[in-house]
Amino acid sequence: MRVIPYINQYRLIVQLIGLILLPLGIYFEGGYGVEMAWREKAKQLEEAIAISEKKAGQVNERIKYITVEKIKTVKDVQVVIQDRIREVATKIDQECKVDPEAIKILNDSAKNIKKPTPRPLTLKLSMELHNG
Amino acid sequence: MGKLLLLVLLLGGCVTTVPVQRHWPSAPPELKQNCPELNEVPIDTEKLSEVLKVVTSNYALYHECRIKMNAWAEWYDSQKRIFEEVK
Q: How many CB atoms lie within 10 A of CB A36?
């Protein structure tokens, strides 16, 4: 620096500026590197998520297809069963008469009896505290 | 105060928000339907064939419900596995 005549007179100031700029530069260079690393990681994560969302969609489609097909089979079988009942209905009805009590029991067992759901203990306690 | 400012400035370099969001997938609408109530036999009937029709149709309802229930379990397991693959 001493060999440059014009700069030499401001040597101290230039050195001071250099002293400040060097760590700042290192700091920002480090920050830039970290930022770039995170951006790369975020990009990788986004790609992985896109693949997983595609897989999730495929699973949805597969399960939907299988479910619909299975239900269709059940309905088809049911049609056959109902036809078979119709075929033998006369014979069955001739030999057997159902007591109304039996039907009542059957219907009672088919009913979905809805009991009031008991409140969870924590909710009960908090309500008691709230009400004093 | 100066040291604190310096520390905040230096630690500021560690703050990074990753703008990546994940969503849990929606289940197929076919699985979201509730299981229906069971059919009841007309109370005035004396025919066993009528009873048989209702009972077998209730069996069919059970089978449909069972299929949906099993599909739910399979859907959840599959989606959970896929979700956990991304780290």
A: 10
